[in-house]
């Protein structure tokens, strides 16, 4: 009872407090454009700090400046020219806004209270703090799709225990008198265990289904599909280099210097990238597709010369929230593809040297050239 | 009789233990699994992106020592200020001929690296801007302001980024020749026709 008496006023106060702060600091939609270059009371960003801008200039001047600053500079308005010179001659883009919309922005700047804003942002934080593994249902379904043979341990243990019991009963306890029961159990379990040993031994050194946790919850689905960014924007060396290229934080910051809030994870995950940029400490991503050291592979040869699509080896990366290795990247898989894939001989500078094949294709006696035909399955091509 | 049964028991348990050891690997999403002959599988040299205990920042990929440059690299001396940008525009000369082939290469590169913000037609209406993610309006590359600039200035902005900081530096992603081809393509009003 006493508790309730204490807490009710506190609770009421909290509600009122949060309501008032929310009402006070609702920025108009149009202000988002301004916030790309300006702050209020947090110092100069690209344009000057907007704190007290209502006192520095009169309203009519501000309205015409916000509408088209460059027209005013061209017309020789002394204040506008001075501002333009002060800010490294970076023109402020024209805004297609009505007078009332601009007045709304100006009142927002006038009433802006820094202390109130910090309290709302801290109150909002838990809401946007979606757990690091926060995914929607579709992506969860996506991840449940298993690649590789899956976990064989339970089956192995069950049959191993059966095998042991049968052996012990046969040699020591002799509870079951009919020996053929033991024999059947032993043969079946040896078969199953042998199968598991074979499957597991074959998978040694392969990582099909490997999907490690990354330090930042990064989604290829968001970047490549929803935001339509080309694979090569980030993995820019795939065309020219052995490695596809791992984007440095600087590449992330090309967009994330402005984009600070994600749709799924809010501000938490992008803040890690920005923090890495500010502290100059690289993010330790975990590499998913590994080849053994005794195999040589070049992205340039496959992507640039062979005109292969990324998805042929990496699966539908653009639909993955968390990267998973789809193919087993074993030698059999490589060799099979080399046997079946047609080399694009026409309009390909790289294969001009293969005169005999070129002639045969021209004459029509040869319908296709596989990678195998041009020595793609020689041992020394990949192992040396 | 008793002695031989003990031997039999030891043999059975021994076989079982060997079997169990062979197969006791348990794959999880987070483990890359076991390998045959780790000495041939894992590189003994430090690879480009691997950790390196010899440097204090544990990076294998180190920046060149101060005052040195890699072979064949032409250092880029213009900074990211307005005056330097104008200077670059005046001094830099396009080393490549303006041909349809170069313009087509420029178009491909433009569509990978620039069209996200500037749009396929260069009107400043790329998807990142129209979807509301990137709030600052990118430049209309076909506008008179951009088209009036010398080609060196376009190359400069592609390389080090814009003065405002809203456009990032793309020098690390696009090689020098391709940046000239992009500049050529932009200067040609985003058309491959000469």
Short description:
The complex is a heterodimer of chains A (384) and B (194). Chain A has 384 residues and is mostly helical.
Give your account of this protein's structure:
- The complex is a heterodimer of chains A (384) and B (194).
- Chain A is an all-alpha fold and 384 residues long.
- Chain A has four domains: 123 residues, Orthogonal Bundle (Cytochrome Bc1 Complex, Chain D, domain 2); 51 residues; 119 residues, no CATH class; 55 residues, no CATH class.
- In chain A, helix 1 crosses helix 8 and helix 10 runs antiparallel to helix 11.
- Chain A is elongated, with a radius of gyration of 33 Å.
- About 10% of the residues of chain A have low confidence.
- Chain B has a domain of 106 residues: Cytochrome Bc1 Complex, Chain D, domain 2 (Orthogonal Bundle).
- Chain B is mainly α.
- In chain B, helix 8 packs across helix 9.
- Chain B contains nine helices and no strands.
- The mean pLDDT of chain B is 85.
CATH level-1 class of the domain at 82-187 in chain B: Mainly Alpha
Helical stretch count of chain A?
20
Characterize the main sheet of chain A.
none
Q: Could you please say which CATH topology of the largest domain in chain A applies here?
A: Cytochrome Bc1 Complex, Chain D, domain 2
Percent of residues in helices of chain B: 40-55%
Q: Kindly report the average pLDDT value of chain B.
A: 85
Q: Helix-strand pattern of chain A, N to C?
A: HHHHHHHHHHHHHHHHHHHH
- Catalogue the unreliable spans of chain A: 12-24, 117-143
Number of domains of chain A: 4
Write a concise keyword list for the protein shown above.
heterodimer; A: 384 residues; mainly alpha; Cytochrome Bc1 Complex, Chain D, domain 2; 0% strand; B: 194 residues
């Amino acid at each position: 009872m006493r508790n309730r008496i204490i807490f009710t006023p506190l609770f009421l106060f909290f509600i009122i407090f949060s309501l008032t702060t929310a009402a006070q600091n609702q920025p108009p939609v149009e202000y988002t454009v301004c916030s790309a270059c300006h702050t209020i009371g947090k110092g100069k960003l690209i344009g000057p700090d907007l704190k007290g801008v209502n006192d520095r200039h009169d309203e009519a001047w501000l309205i015409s400046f916000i509408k088209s600053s460059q027209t005013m500079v061209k017309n020789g308005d002394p204040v506008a020219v001075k501002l333009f010179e002060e800010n490294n001659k970076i023109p402020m883009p024209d805004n297609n806004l009505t007078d009332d919309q601009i007045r709304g922005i100006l009142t927002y700047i006038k009433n802006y209270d820094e202390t109130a804003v910090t309290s709302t942002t801290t109150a909002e934080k838990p809401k946007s703090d979606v757990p690091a593994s926060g995914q929607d249902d579709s992506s969860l379904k996506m991840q449940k799709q298993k690649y590789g043979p899956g976990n064989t341990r339970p089956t192995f243990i069950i049959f191993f225990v059966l095998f042991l019991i049968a052996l012990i009963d046969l040699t020591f306890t002799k509870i079951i008198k009919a020996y053929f029961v033991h024999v059947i159990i032993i043969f079946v379990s040896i078969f199953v265990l042998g199968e598991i040993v074979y499957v597991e031994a074959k998978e040694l050194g392969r990582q099909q289904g490997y999907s490690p946790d990354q330090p930042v919850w990064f989604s290829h689905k968001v970047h490549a599909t929803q935001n339509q960014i080309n694979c090569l924007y980030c993995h820019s060396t795939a065309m020219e280099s052995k490695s596809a290229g791992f984007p440095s934080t600087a590449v992330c910051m090309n967009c994330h210097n402005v984009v600070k809030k994600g749709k799924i994870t809010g501000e938490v995950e992008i803040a890690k990238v920005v923090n890495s940029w500010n502290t100059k400490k690289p993010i330790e991503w975990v590499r998913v597709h590994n080849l053994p050291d005794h195999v040589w592979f070049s992205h340039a040869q496959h992507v640039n010369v062979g005109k292969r699509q990324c998805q042929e080896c990496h699966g539908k990366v653009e639909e993955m929230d968390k990267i998973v290795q789809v193919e087993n990247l074993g030698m059999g898989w490589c060799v099979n593809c080399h046997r079946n894939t047609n080399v694009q001989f026409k309009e390909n500078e790289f294969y001009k040297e293969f005169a005999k094949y070129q002639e045969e294709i021209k004459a029509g006696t040869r319908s296709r050239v596989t990678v195998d035909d041009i020595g793609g399955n020689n041992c020394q091509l990949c192992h040396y | 009789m008793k002695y031989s049964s003990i031997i039999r028991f030891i043999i059975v348990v021994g076989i079982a233990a060997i079997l169990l050891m062979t197969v006791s690997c348990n794959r999880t999403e987070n483990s890359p699994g076991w390998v045959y002959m780790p000495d041939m599988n894992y590189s003994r040299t430090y690879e480009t992106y691997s950790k390196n205990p010899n440097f204090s920042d544990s990076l294998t990929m180190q920046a060149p020592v101060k005052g040195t440059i890699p072979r064949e690299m032409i250092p880029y001396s213009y900074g990211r200020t307005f005056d330097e940008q104008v200077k670059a525009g005046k001094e830099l000369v396009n080393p490549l001929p303006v041909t349809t082939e170069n313009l087509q290469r420029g178009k491909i590169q433009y569509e990978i690296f620039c069209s996200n913000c500037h749009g396929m037609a260069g009107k400043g209406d790329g998807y990142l801007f129209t979807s509301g993610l990137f709030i600052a309006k990118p430049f209309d590359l076909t506008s008179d302001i951009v088209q009036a600039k010398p080609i060196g200035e376009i190359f400069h902005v592609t390389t080090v980024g814009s003065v405002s900081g809203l456009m990032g530096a793309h020098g690390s992603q696009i090689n020098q020749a391709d940046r000239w081809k992009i500049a050529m393509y932009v200067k040609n009003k985003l058309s491959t026709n000469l």
